[in-house]
Amino acid sequence: MLEEQAFYLAKTTPHPFEIDVERAEGSYIFDQDGKKYLDFIAGISVSSLGHSHPRILKAINEQANKHLHVMVYGEFKQKAQQDLGKELSSLLPKELHSYYFLNSGTEAIEAAIKLVKRASSKSKIIAFEGSYHGNTHGSLSVSHREARKSPFRPLLPDIHFIKLNDFSNLEEIDQATAAVFLETIQGDAGIRIPSREYMQALRKRCTDTNTLLVLDEIQCGMGRTGKFSAFEHYGIVPDVLCMGKALGGGLPIGALIANKELMELFSFNPKLGHITTFGGHPLVCATAAEGLRIIKEEALIETVEEKAALIKKLLIHPKIKEIRHKGLFIAVELASESMVEELVLQSLKNGLILFWFLSTPTAFRIAPPLNISTSEIEEGCEIILEILNNIA
């Protein structure tokens, strides 16, 4: 009898959570032993409709019974993609009416880097201190944290970083700049929120210097901040929008969004200027379209601020230094990195899933499903407070 060959799945940290997942439903994940975990991070802002939403499962099954992959993106007309475009058009400003669907948020950033260079024939890109746009080569180049970048250098050249909310830095955006890349609300930096005045000044500076403004709403979009798009809080519209994570209703997707004139630059000089085999996969697009309908029909965005206010009201404790949030995009600042680590790990043992920020070790994140219930919020906050009472 042949010996079974050992195999190993790649790990991304030395100490992963390693919940042995059996199933997930609503706001809970269940392991193989039947223990349930309240999901307070929604897979890092992915499962905004909770787990196994019945309408999402139905959309998956209906599309699977029609067809799966048929051709590389853009070559065939596919109803699932058209439906997703139609649903997005009902929620986005009229200026953002051309869609390129990809496999992930970082792919959307990669495509955006190519698009702004193609549109401007310039290489200079400005990004922000504290930024995180993904882990592929180009996305890492426009992300800020050097500890994550240095092992993979050289990266893309001519990338410059400025400080968020620093008006004097806006002068670095000039006629030689192809684009500015910004998370509308910075996530990995620990939920850093620009002022309305700053965002409007940034928009004006980009317009005045013929620079494209690219907003990354991969984490902060899809209603998480209390508006469908986080940029709605600021009274501006970007030239290019990148989406991902929650857009797929739990399946992998990215979206590059601009106007038709910009997007058509990918169709010539050269032809197939950007191409993807599985981007815009019909299964994912059908699910994403249904997810957008759920958000609208279940009025999930309208309840975000109320739920965020409840979390902020409940999480009052001497060990909590600050809570920064825009809607259900929340960072809770503690006194030390070790305190955050202990809280996150103890919460896991007590059936609550929290997570840290890569670049902000003194804070932990809360980003639950948008349809989390009041009682589930109370349950999670009670676990957090109890652990805080017992850690040094």
Compose a concise summary of this entry.
This protein is α/β, with parallel strands linked by helices and about 400 residues long.
What features would you describe in this structure?
The protein is of the alpha/beta class and 392 residues long. It folds into two domains: 21-52 and 299-390, Alpha-Beta Complex (Aspartate Aminotransferase, domain 1); 56-297, Type I PLP-dependent aspartate aminotransferase-like (Major domain) (Aspartate Aminotransferase, domain 2), CATH 3.40.640. Helices cover 32% and strands 17% of the residues. The chain is built from twelve helices and 15 strands. The protein has helices at 42-45, 54-64, 79-89, 105-120, 137-141, 146-149, 196-208, 260-263, 282-297, 304-314, 337-349, 374-390, and strands at 21-25, 28-31, 36-39, 98-102, 124-128, 159-162, 177-183, 212-216, 240-243, 254-258, 322-326, 329-333, 352-353, 355-356, 363-366. The strands form three sheets. A seven-stranded mixed beta sheet has the order 4-10-9-8-7-5-6, with helices on both faces. A four-stranded mixed beta sheet has the order 1-2-3-13. A four-stranded antiparallel beta sheet has the order 11-12-15-14. Strand 7, helix 7 and strand 8 (212-216) form a beta-alpha-beta unit. Helix 2 (54-64) packs antiparallel against helix 9 (282-297) and helix 10 (304-314) packs parallel to helix 12. The longest helix is centred in the last third of the chain and has 17 residues, at 374-390. It is globular and about 60 Å long. The model has no long low-confidence stretch (mean pLDDT 97).
